[in-house]
Design brief:
Helix content is 19%, strand content 34%. With 251 residues, the chain is of the alpha+beta class. A hairpin with an 8-residue loop joins strand 4 (68-77) and strand 5.
Amino acid sequence: MSTLLLKLAAPMQSWGISSKFNRRMTNMEPTRSGVIGMLAAAMGLSREEPLDMFKSLKFGVRIDQPGTMNRDFQVVYQNPNDTLPAWVTHRYYLEDAVFLAGLEGPSEFLAELESALTHPVYPLALGRRSCPPAGPLFLGIRDADLLTALRQEAWQASSWYQREAKWQHVPSLEIVRDAEPDEDGYAVRDVPESFSQKRRLYYFRNVIREQVPLSQIVGSENTENKQEGYTEHDPMELLEGDDVSIENQNQ
């Protein structure tokens, strides 16, 4: 087995599981359903298509830079003739978070995902459409199992956060991953069976949380200096070469 690694970083991310009605919450780390949805978008799958191809993948996340939760108030408008034409919604986001996500599976399928991520059919987002990634997502495919890859990959946090963490003597990073059959974890409902707007369906999975000493990661080749290599991000670069002007749309 091999493991595909992703860097999930953006000014804002939102990974909800139990969002209902006017309150849209976010987890403190990416969900399996959110990442699988992003991969499905990259592959050009419609919401009605089956997701069986993703079931064999093992999923895990390392929290390299914990985000700060923030709440946004948004007004939703309906038909002005309705009894309640508008109401306030509460939407929660993670600010300045960086995660290392891993998916373990067959090498052939991971290669397909690599191609999709580097040439996505639909624009990609970290949990919500309003949260485009702040740089390339794909880090590479490692010849290792999920846990080994998450433990050994270089620290992806921003330079300023790495310095702050060292000053504060942060001892370790947290890994949240799928539990093995012989492990006792806790259940979360974020395994997508269908993204159909007619009937979204999710199943439970068992999750383990553990710590990896920071001393095992800091010495890897991706140092602070390399974190400054990519500083520009254009969320509309996928549309380069296409005429999206109003004049063209009206023709």
